[in-house]
Design brief:
With about 180 residues, the chain is of the alpha+beta class. The protein has five helices and five strands; from the N terminus they run αααβαββαββ.
Length: about 180
């Protein structure tokens, strides 16, 4: 999916900065329009069964890292809106990708906890790797801002938190409260 460099290009292409050509700006605007169209189409998708969401999350995350420890706690019967399910899948996948890319190699412990309750849902992606200072992240690197926080904040009742410190690992908490 779209990540740091492309997201930055798209961001700059839609601003009034003179360093980009008109064709790049038009391409970026077209891509953003297409993303908005695809996002609007999610409203027409049927809601997702909670057990199906847990299974889907497990599958996409284990596809990225087969040794990942995943726990699930499903105590929800009501379906979850498709846009929320997609935001969780995309946000959790991006959090795990970031961990695999930046936290360190073999020996780094990674886990995911999936919890679905009558009041909402929470997915926590955690590693005990290198960690980082969230305040020191270049604002032009949009991975955490757009790919994780933006996806959850875009759904009604959604939120995302990133907690990290150098040498202390990283915890990404994705959440949704059923309105």
């Amino acid at each position: 999916l779209v990540h740091d460099e492309l997201m930055t290009a798209l961001y700059y292409a839609t601003t009034d900065r003179g360093e980009l050509t008109g064709s790049v700006r038009k391409q970026a605007a077209k891509a953003l329009d297409e993303l908005a169209r695809l996002d609007a189409a999610l409203d027409d998708e049927p809601p997702v069964d909670p057990a199906e969401l847990a299974t889907r999350l497990r599958a996409v995350l284990l596809d990225l890292s087969s040794g990942l420890r995943i726990t699930t706690d499903v105590h929800r019967e009501a379906p979850i809106p498709a846009a929320v399910a997609d935001a969780f899948a995309e946000g959790a996948t991006e959090a795990l990708r970031n961990s695999l890319r930046h936290a360190g190699g073999p020996g780094v412990g990674r886990s995911v906890a999936i919890r679905l309750t009558a009041n909402g849902a929470t997915v926590v992606v955690r590693d005990d790797g290198a960690g980082f200072d969230p305040a020191a992240v270049d604002p032009y690197r949009l991975g955490v801002l757009v790919s994780i926080r933006g996806r959850l904040n875009a759904v009604d009742g959604g939120f995302a938190e990133v907690s990290s410190a150098p040498g202390k690992g990283t915890t990404v908490t994705l959440g949704w409260r059923d309105p």
